[in-house]
Amino acid sequence: MNDTTRRGLMxxxxxxxxxxxxxxxxxxxxxxxxxxxxxxEEAKVAIASVSEEAYCTPKLKAIVRRVATSCGLxxxxxxxxxxxxxxxxxxxxxxxxxxxxRPLAERARIVQFxxxxxxxxxxxxxxxxxxxxxxxxASFFFVVARASPDGKTEHNELLSAGRAKSxxxxxxxRFQDPDLHKQVGLLWLGEDFAQLGEEFCDWNRSRMDLxxxxxxxxxxxxxxxxxxx
Length: 229
Prior knowledge:
4 strands; 229 residues; globular; four-stranded mixed beta sheet; CATH 3.30.1330.60
């Protein structure tokens, strides 16, 4: 082996190392770009995994992605979205938003609250715990809290926010899961957006007593979402 060939072989590793570094940097930059721009990921939601549940429609997956990005699951964890932001995140009408969740009737629960209350009663706590235990590999736990339009709009917004946070607080205290804030997404809708109709009284509720439109909207809808986003 002559000197020229020997020097060439010795220099080859030095040339390969920068190539691998550049490839790694480009891959990391691409990952950061996708994380910063949810529209890149939303473009993929139409491609459903064969293992996903049937309710994982492209629209529902897009909303899950927006909530995960805009309401704290991906960035800060558990921050939540208030009514104005929730409407912007959903980008749907009230009826269309509720329609997306109708296929979850067998999996979701509706936790009900007192007329002017935010505290979970015994049945409400049990409903939260039972629903959380049914994860079955799902990644996101949705809490969509509402208030009936009885009082002032501002007060009802605070009620729905308190109800959503009561669910989160109970999960934190009961399970002490360090990854919980990366899984739980909160939406509080007040009385402004996506009020439930009385047909939701037939769903699995924490209180199986009198149910009208007022009672069903003093509530938090909770469910694991199995959709890959």
